[in-house]
């Protein structure tokens, strides 16, 4: 009774992965156009909380941005840090194009119940750019980040997602990198098809006019994934959401250091995932349900089970290599072939931990 449904399920996922690979291989969309002769003023907005370890690398990368200083405004908010984050920010903001804002205790959660969105709501008031760029304090931007994004922002575009690479030397970090390539490859495909799903808070550009039209961060519904809410609201306001994938727009982010931190991150992300459209939930279901189905096939018919699992791993690996090669050197084959074992463990633990009666921890804060 279970054999036929299991075969159908694993077949659907394998076919889905083949179609994803073919789309990336033969119909990859590049949104880059010619830069305007008169470059627009842009603002970079960053909210930082207890980031003394990572902030210097971000600031160094912002100092290398290939964009005229007189057209570039950088705004950084310290969100009630208990370490030396504010001191580092103050020291770096040593010229007119760089400004900081320190959120006070009586200003916490006054504009949005999400701490990061609250801090960005204060920065938003001071932003003068036609386009607002967002990244995180633990990221690093490429020098061509601003120019590449500006070249893609035609009048219909309200929000642009860039591409982010997870960096780290440990096995867990390499698995997270492959996980991001796989997920963002799917995000790229569905966005190009006209079904965008989310924003990407660590590499995102918003047209100022679009943000004002939706009322800014202060009017976003509370959500632990504020970038997802931004994408929804901007689409409802009549703007396009696009995804540009190129070496110039690449931003680097750190991997979560251990399983505990990874599960806290995924539990927060799940708050947004469960609100995705039915199409996405179905895709995610097939991704997660593949493993119990293939394990059952391994039990009743080892040859069939192994064949389907190897085929899925091979197609998935080709997909990740094809997508990541649009930006940088792809992951090695050894790591790609180990990815499914990580994915099985992380997915099952994420589902269990999501329903575990504990509060979400994010940036030294706890949320219900």
Folded structure, characterized:
With about 375 residues, this protein is an alpha/beta fold. It folds into 2 domains: about 5-30 and about 260-360, no CATH class; about 40-160 and about 200-255, Spore Coat Polysaccharide Biosynthesis Protein SpsA, Chain A, CATH 3.90.550.10. The protein is about 50% helix and about 15% strand. It is built from 12 helices and 12 strands. It has helices at about 5-25, 55-65, 85-90, 115-125, 145-150, 170-190, 210-215, 225-235, 260-275, 280-300, 300-325, 335-355, and strands at about 40-50, 70-80, 100, 130-135, 140, 155-160, 165, 205, 240-245, 250-255, 360, 365. The strands form 3 sheets. A 7-stranded mixed sheet has the order 3-2-1-4-8-6-9, sandwiched between helices. A 3-stranded mixed sheet has the order 5-10-7. Helix 6 (about 170-190) crosses helix 11 and helix 11 (about 300-325) crosses helix 12 (about 335-355). The two termini are about 40 Å apart. The mean pLDDT is about 90.
């Amino acid at each position: 009774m279970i054999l036929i449904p299991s075969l159908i399920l694993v077949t659907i996922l394998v076919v889905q992965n083949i179609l994803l690979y073919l789309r990336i291989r033969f119909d990859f969309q590049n949104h880059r156009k010619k830069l305007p002769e008169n470059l627009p003023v842009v603002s970079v907005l960053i909210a930082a909380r207890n980031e003394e370890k990572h902030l210097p690398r971000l600031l160094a990368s912002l100092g290398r941005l290939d964009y005229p200083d007189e057209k570039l405004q950088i705004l950084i908010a310290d969100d009630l840090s208990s370490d030396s984050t504010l001191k580092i920010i103050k020291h770096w903001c040593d010229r007119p194009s760089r400004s900081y804002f320190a959120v006070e205790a009586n200003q916490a959660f006054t504009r949005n119940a999400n701490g990061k969105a609250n801090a960005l709501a204060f920065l938003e008031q001071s932003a003068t750019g036609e386009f607002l760029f967002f990244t995180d304090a633990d990221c690093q931007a490429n020098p061509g980040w601003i120019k590449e994004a500006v070249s893609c922002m035609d009048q219909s575009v309200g929000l642009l997602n860039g591409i982010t690479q997870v960096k780290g030397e440990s096995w867990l970090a390499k698995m997270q990198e492959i996980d991001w390539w796989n997920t963002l490859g799917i995000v790229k495909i569905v966005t190009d098809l006209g079904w965008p799903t989310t924003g990407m808070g660590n590499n995102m550009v918003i047209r100022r006019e679009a943000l004002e039209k939706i009322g800014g961060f202060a009017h976003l519904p509370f959500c632990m994934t504020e970038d997802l809410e931004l994408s929804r609201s901007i689409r409802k306001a009549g703007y396009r959401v696009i995804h540009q994938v190129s070496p110039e727009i690449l931003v680097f982010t750190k991997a979560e250091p251990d399983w505990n931190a990874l599960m806290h991150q995924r539990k927060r992300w799940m708050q947004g995932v469960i609100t995705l459209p039915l199409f996405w939930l179905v895709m995610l279901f097939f991704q997660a349900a593949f493993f119990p189905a293939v394990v059952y096939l391994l039990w009743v018919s080892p040859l069939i089970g192994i064949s389907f699992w190897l085929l899925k791993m091979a197609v998935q690996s080709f997909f990740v290599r094809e997508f990541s090669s649009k930006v940088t050197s792809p992951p090695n084959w050894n790591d790609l072939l180990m990815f499914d074992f990580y994915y099985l463990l992380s997915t099952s633990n994420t589902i269990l931990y999501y329903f575990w009666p504990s509060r979400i921890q994010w940036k030294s804060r706890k949320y219900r």
